[in-house]
Amino acid sequence: MRAVRFSVATAAATVVALTAVTGCAEKSDGKGDGAVQVVAKDDSCEVSKKKLPAGHVELAVENKGSKVTEVYLLFPDGRIAAERENIGPGTKATITTEIKTGSYDIVCKPGMKGAGYRQKVEVTGGTAAKRSPEMDKAVAEYRTYVQTQADETLPKAKIFTDAVAAGDIEAAKKAYADSRLGWERTEPVAESFGDIDPKVDLREDGLEDGQEWTGWHRLEKALWHDKKLGAEEKALAPVLYKDLLDWQKRVGKAEITPTSMANGAKELLDEVATGKVTGEEERYSHTDLVDFKGNVEGAEKAYELLKPIASKNDPALTATLDKQFAALNTLLDKYRTDKNSYEFVSYDKVGKADRKELSDAVNALAEPLSQLAAAVTK
């Protein structure tokens, strides 16, 4: 799901963790000649430049507000060109991305809800970002990967939604986590469309005013919390499948660049830090570790495809990333008896000390991973 929509009660308690994973992860102050300074406040979004040349651009974000915020660079049709979520108050984040000629919106969302505050920017002239054959190869292979994940998700989702529609609680529970793996591996690409994620993967506390709650987590609550499948839940099952079918048909046309792959890998680690490690994501089923593994696998796939490029530009960074990915995967293996299986320990059985160990491992990976996009574009 899109990163945690915090309630007032939980936001303050989470700022420390978010700072470790997002804001302070960016070593650069983002004050290079090409950087666009973005100041996010509780009631505004300020940008230092409104006319940019095409090519690679760096957004240097500083949250001067009192709320956790997120910043987006949006295409005119609302698709996401680049994003960074969970930027804590008083912290900074740097986003390196690739843009073409056209009009864009830079959006700051204090509290990570609502329409946010927008600034229009125009991208004209300049030189389009140059792509090496290695970059083109990485993008092509990643596009194949995300399409494959979507293709393989649909039959698994059908097993889940058919069980829900039939009122078979046990069969639906058994199929639930497996139906989500492909989505979790490629979530940033799915989220780039803007409209699919809120339909299929939103939690109840992330609902906007007047928004109908549909998707996996609506049914998760019915299965594990309410312990019943009524007419409403049975009717929502084919809706979920239809929305996932829409995702499958559109994912192959997603805007994918080397920088979006790198940024997406970082976003997947943010998903882990703010949803899976906390137990917020799968609060009823406690299948968080399955999602956790899916997010890590998706991030690692993007990294492995970009590694030939990044290793030439920053070999020390890739050596660190190799080490930290291996450490996190080894740690996750502690929570399953079969390394070829996705049957993990129920997360409500994972104690506070173990959750901290998992969180520390995620943070140790997220910090260098935040530098991948810059390494790819050197």
Largest sheet: 8 strands, mixed
Helix % is 40-55%
Instruction: Provide mean pLDDT, rounded.
Output: 89
Beta content comes to 15-25%
Shape: globular
Order of helices and strands: HEEEEEEEEHHHHHHHHHHH
Structure notes:
The chain is α+β, with helices and mostly antiparallel strands and 378 residues long. The protein has 12 helices and 8 strands. It has helices at residues 8-21, 133-165, 169-185, 187-191, 197-200, 216-226, 231-251, 258-276, 288-313, 315-333, 352-369, 372-376; strands at residues 35-40, 45-47, 51-63, 69-74, 80-87, 92-99, 102-108, 117-126. Strands 1, 2, 3, 4, 5, 6, 7 and 8 form an 8-stranded mixed sheet that branches. Helix 8 (258-276) runs antiparallel to helix 11 and helix 9 runs antiparallel to helix 10 (315-333). The radius of gyration is 20 Å and the shape is globular. It starts with 7 loop residues before the first helix and ends with a helix. The model is unreliable at 3-32 (pLDDT under 50).
Layout of helices and strands:
Elements: H1 8-21, E1 35-40, E2 45-47, E3 51-63, E4 69-74, E5 80-87, E6 92-99, E7 102-108, E8 117-126, H2 133-165, H3 169-185, H4 187-191, H5 197-200, H6 216-226, H7 231-251, H8 258-276, H9 288-313, H10 315-333, H11 352-369, H12 372-376
Helix pairs in contact: 1-8, 2-3, 2-7, 2-9, 3-6, 3-9, 6-7, 8-9, 8-11, 9-10, 10-11
Summarize the structure.
By secondary structure, the chain is α+β, with helices and mostly antiparallel strands. Helices cover 51% and strands 16% of the residues.
